[in-house]
Write a sequence for this structure.
């Protein structure tokens, strides 16, 4: 990449909620990314058969609707419900006869799992006994998240997505029989759809993910996109906000202007590269590796913008200096007060662009071209004013050529190392057992008078 690169400015999450002001001020929170080329709005995807087209001179790769009419992008518009605080979920029909469940959409994990038993916080669950097409695979799986975990039986069954697909697909599915802090009070979903790469799948990457199965069986491009319409709205209200999950491509009616792409640095999470972070037009002046420690990811299953501790501290200080508030309205805390929350939290191991940030954009996960795209979302407005914007180019002369720290070993390598160490330990243990048994047979032999068996004898023999 040259010294001057096109880049993406994401004024993330920031909602300037001064009610007395005549109009909201532009959000001064910017987060430049390492960016590929912007795609032209005028060259939006058009229907047609085949895989995604090769990039043109302007860097645009079209995500075309698949041949045979397996998917209908327009039917996928408004197929999500929810909010950033409790997640956005998709209606699915599972098993034969079909059982309707609401499934949380999570781009930060890779397993497809549903409640498989009654739980105080879910209104329904998938009963495998009622499905004639369910087949168990004979093993359990445990998945742990930043908050919460679950354990479930792994099997396979047919799944239908009513809004967008006209057929069913056979997929791997875990039925949750035990969980901790996973199903929470107030949620309206009863399962989770992990849309990250197979590298993160549990118990191993050999378990085919839902989206990989969908791509193979529906013959759609390896692309999906999300619009979540909760920007500026309370996260604990009585109603739910809409959104769209387009599986297989891009729906032009869900974004405005250009789509700006940034490369996926590693195919596990949707890991991207953050170059700089500015508050009120002033850079935090941190080494760009701090922003990416130990990774920077786009994760719809995380609520807030989570920042590494050092970056979070710098942001809080900058916000305090500029008297800017990055807050969201809350409901239910009291009758006589309007309550707000800070939309940014510290993180121990990643910078996470969560749902409250993604609500400001139409986000494209272009796995075929190994990139994530951002475009302005028409539903991300407060009182008619947009809460986010995208612009560029900007200078990268003061940015390091690589801001991503060395990645930890991924799961397949860890398994290889583990098995190697176990083999070495087994061989050493076998040798020790053999050595332990051999001297035992020799203890009954008569002692040799010439054998030197202590230091004093050794000294005496030397002087003889």
């Amino acid at each position: 990449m040259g010294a001057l690169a096109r880049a993406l400015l994401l004024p993330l999450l920031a909602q300037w909620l001064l009610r007395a002001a005549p109009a909201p001020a532009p959000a001064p929170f910017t987060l430049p990314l390492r960016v590929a080329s912007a795609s032209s709005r005028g060259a939006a995807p058009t229907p047609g058969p085949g895989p995604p087209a090769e990039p043109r001179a302007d860097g645009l790769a079209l995500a075309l609707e698949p041949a045979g009419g397996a998917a209908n992008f327009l039917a996928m518009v408004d197929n999500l419900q929810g909010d950033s605080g409790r997640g956005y979920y998709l209606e699915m029909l599972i098993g034969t006869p079909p059982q309707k469940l609401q499934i949380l959409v999570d781009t930060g994990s890779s397993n497809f799992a549903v409640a498989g038993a009654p739980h105080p916080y879910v209104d329904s669950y998938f009963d495998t006994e009622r499905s004639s097409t369910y087949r168990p695979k004979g093993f359990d799986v445990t998945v742990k998240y930043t908050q919460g975990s679950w354990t479930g039986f792994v099997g396979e069954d047919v799944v239908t997505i009513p809004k967008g697909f006209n057929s069913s697909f056979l997929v791997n599915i875990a039925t949750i029989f035990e969980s901790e802090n996973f199903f929470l009070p107030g949620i309206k979903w009863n399962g989770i759809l992990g849309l990250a790469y197979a590298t993160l799948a549990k118990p191993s990457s050999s378990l085919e993910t839902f989206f990989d199965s969908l791509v193979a069986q529906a013959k759609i491009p390896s692309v999906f996109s999300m619009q979540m319409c909760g920007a500026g709205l309370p996260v604990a209200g009585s109603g739910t906000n809409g959104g769209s999950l387009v599986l297989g491509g891009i729906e032009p009616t869900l974004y405005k202007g250009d789509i700006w792409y940034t490369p996926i640095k590693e195919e596990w999470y949707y890991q991207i590269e953050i170059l700089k972070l500015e508050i009120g037009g002033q850079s935090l002046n941190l080494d760009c590796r701090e922003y990416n420690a130990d990774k920077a990811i786009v994760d719809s299953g995380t609520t807030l913008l989570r920042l590494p501790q050092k970056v979070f501290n710098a942001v809080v200080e900058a916000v305090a200096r500029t008297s800017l508030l990055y807050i969201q309205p809350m409901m239910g805390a009291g009758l006589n007060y309007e309550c707000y929350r800070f939309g940014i939290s510290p993180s121990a191991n990643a910078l996470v662009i969560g749902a409250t940030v993604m609500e400001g954009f139409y986000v494209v996960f272009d796995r075929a071209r190994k990139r994530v795209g951002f475009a302005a979302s028409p539903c991300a407005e407060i009182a008619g004013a947009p809460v986010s914007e995208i612009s560029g180019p900007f200078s990268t002369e003061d940015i390091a050529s690589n801001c991503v720290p060395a990645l930890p070993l991924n799961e397949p390598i860890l398994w290889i190392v583990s098995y190697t160490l176990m083999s070495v330990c087994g061989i050493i243990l076998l040798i020790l057992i053999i050595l332990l048994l051999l001297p035992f047979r020799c203890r009954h032999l008569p002692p040799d008078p010439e054998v030197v068996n202590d230091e004093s004898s050794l000294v005496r023999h030397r002087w003889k």
Remarks:
- The helical segments are 210-218, 288-291, 309-322, 355-358, 411-442, 455-463.
- Residues 1-27, 40-65, 447-464 have pLDDT under 50 and may be disordered.
- The two ends are 81 Å apart (CA to CA).
